[in-house]
Amino acid sequence: MRAGTEKVAFIGLGTMGGPMVANVVKGGFEVYLYDADPERASILADQLDTGAETRVHAARTPGDLQDCTVVVLMLPNSAIVRSVLLTQDGGLQLPLQPGSVIIDMSSSDPTETVSTGAALSTHGLSMIDAPVSGAKARALDATLAIMMGADDEAAAQRAIPVVDTMSRSIYRTGKLGTGHAMKALNNFVAAASFAAASEAVTAGERFGLDPALMVDILNDSTGQSFITSHVLGPHVVEGRFASGFALPLLTKDVRIAESLQRSVHHESPVCDAVSRQFGAALEELGDVDHTEAFSYWNTN
Questions:
Q1: What distance in Å separates the CA atoms of residue 214 and residue 108, rounded to the nearest whole number?
Q2: Model confidence at 212, in pLDDT bands (50, 70, 90)?
Q3: Helix, coil or strand: residue 210
Q4: Three-state secondary structure readout of 224-293
Q5: Which residue, 69, 75, 215, 226, has fewest beta-carbon neighbours within 10 Å?
Q6: How far apart (Å, rounded) are the C-alpha atoms in residues 135 and 290?
Q7: Which InterPro entries does UniProt cross-reference here (predicted)?
Q8: In the chain, what are the domains?
Q9: pTM to 2 decimal places
Q10: How many CA atoms lie within 13 Å of 229's alpha carbon, on the beta-carbon side?
Q11: Whether the Cβ atoms of residue 75 and residue 103 lie closer than 8 Å to each other
């Protein structure tokens, strides 16, 4: 499908969803914005409307989405994704026509994605999972990395032009759910790196090393990673604590990875330990930037 031949519903207009949908509009699609806060959808629609031809609409009710053939979701978790799409008894919450494609770009639980996809298929709808990596900066400039899982190749081909407006690279991971599995495992690796780097900096500082010097050495040595290059210096050593990735969301992803490993009967001592570390920080700190966990660990 060429840009403009599908009407796209975009549900979830938060930190990531707002800049992502802006790029879908730039890609030439007619877009209907829908959010738990209708005012947010209305404000964003006004910001994105060029005025020449109205291709951005603020949807206030599910009924406003009835003409959409592709639905993109960017929501906090898979339970919310399911509640937006399906009623308790498995009926449709949205008035979508058979043949429509659902693209879940949230960080969802892969087992729940498979279950939701199966329920949607009974209504003639195809589900794609396409979670993202790259945080807000890459959402803004349309360079997100996408991990896409799909059982229906025809549906995937319809999803790709929409997803492509938001991304630098689309990785086809396999069957439905594999995209969400990959996202959780990626974020577990990132979380493990952050926990290890925080532990090292704390120990080094207590021994008399300068934390800034430690970061420089790590980045010129075998300990270098995305965390040491882009997170440890500005958000820990310099004390900004503003990476844009919330502690509850990263903790959720680590727990999804932990659950996934159990589901495939794999012992995961590292993942279990990282999950405990982040869980303890979350219990103490609540909804803060994930880099704030360093401060909690540093005092314990």
A1: 35
A2: very high
A3: coil
A4: CCHHHHHHHHHHHHCCCCCCCCEHHHHHHHHHHHHHHHHHCCCCCHHHHHHHHHHHHHHHHHCCCEHHHH
A5: 226
A6: 13
A7: 3-OH-isobutyrate_DH-rel_CS, 6-PGluconate_DH-like_C_sf, 6PGD_dom2, 6PGDH_NADP-bd, HIBADH-like_NADP-bd, HIBADH-related, NAD(P)-bd_dom_sf
A8: 7-176 (3.40.50.720), 182-298 (1.10.1040.10)
A9: 0.93
A10: 9
A11: no
